[in-house]
Amino acid sequence: MQQYSEQVLQLLTGQKKEWPLAAKNFAGLEKVRTRVFNFDEVEIKVQFNPERIVSSAAKVDAKSIEARPCFLCSKNRPKEQQGVKIGAYSVLVNPFPIFSQHFTIVGEEHLPQQIKGRFCDLLDLAASLPGFTLFYNGPKCGASAPDHFHFQAGNRGFMPLENELEKLKEQHSIKLRSFTSDAWAVKDGLRNFLLLESPVKESVEKDFMKIYDALEAADEEPMMNILAFYESNAWKVVVFPRVLHRPSQYFEEGEKNILISPASVDMGGVLITPLEKDFEKLQSSDIYTIFQQVLYSEPVFNQFIQNLDNA
User: Fold this and answer.
1) Cα 288 off chain centre by
2) 3-class DSSP state of 234
3) Digits of tens for pLDDT over the chain (311 positions)?
4) In this record, what's one Pfam family (predicted)?
């Protein structure tokens, strides 16, 4: 399979020279402030990144989406924005980055954010972009453009979870028996999620669809975030089942308000705070309650994996 990492990195270099918005915001990452919280063997970083207000506060209700042009459609993109074609997708530099190498991978057609029928594309793209972790935010799980299908990609190793997976798999997981790939249900005290590993793409795809079909139904699709990367000739896929789009703190007023809209990167251990007040006041207890609200609780997760293993 052809690899495109070098091409997209060349794209990033060029865009930072030719596109003032991208240049400004990538340079701004050098000033990003970070706090680190430890929950036993789990590390959570909190990043103060004011440019991410565009995503964190995005209005994603149907009326708001209908009222604005789609910023991922080629006809509406900034004239400076260029891309690298990979199959039916264009890899674009994300002008509001979290990662030092941050890309949005956009479907050619204006079709909604629904992973069913596209999961195999995610695996192919992960294999085409070694050195990157790809991620998918469901339409009510952090996607700021739920009307136009897209993945994202960031340089590997930025999210703490990537480096914690092996240890969590060994110490805080249950091996699932009824899967064709190696599959684990992981409970690390903050997050409950599933991990699939296999060198066989068809096995990962089959097992993902088994998870998809077992997840609680929602309006557009079951709520989830996905991380995926290709390493040592095998795919690793992490699926976070969700029950809520945004935590209660997002809707509070005054001092109780915390503007966090968790998506895949947050699930991977980097909570994005676009407001300085939230960055400074956030405590371990806030982080814990945010994850507990948006992800499957332990009783629900236990029942879910029991149902999966008996399927």
Assistant:
1) 19
2) strand
3) 689 999 999 999 999 999 999 999 999 898 889 999 999 889 999 998 887 655 444 455 666 677 788 999 999 999 999 999 999 999 999 999 999 999 999 999 999 999 999 999 999 999 999 999 999 999 989 888 899 999 999 999 999 999 999 999 999 999 998 899 999 999 999 999 999 999 999 999 999 999 999 998 777 799 999 999 999 999 999 999 999 999 999 998 888 899 999 999 999 999 999 888 999 999 999 999 999 999 999 999 999 999 887 76
4) GDPGP1_C
229 Cβ contact partners less than 8 Å away, ≥ 6 residues apart:
126, 132, 133, 134, 156, 162, 235, 236
Q: Where are the alpha helices (DSSP H) in 110-263?
A: 119-128, 160-171, 201-214, 248-251
Nearest Cα to 5, choosing from 128, 94, 136, 107? Answer: 128
User: Phi then psi for 147, rounded to 5 degrees?
Assistant: -90, -10
Whether 63 maps to a domain, the answer reads: yes
- d(CA 138, CA 308) in angstroms, rounded, equals 21
Entry pTM: 0.93
CA distance 25 to 51: 7
Residue 178 lies in a domain: no
> What is the residue range of 206's domain?
5-162+198-310
Could you tell me if residue 187 is inside a domain?
Answer: no
Residues in the chain: 311
Position 192 in a domain: no
- Strand, coil or helix: 84: strand
Q: Domain count of the chain?
A: 1
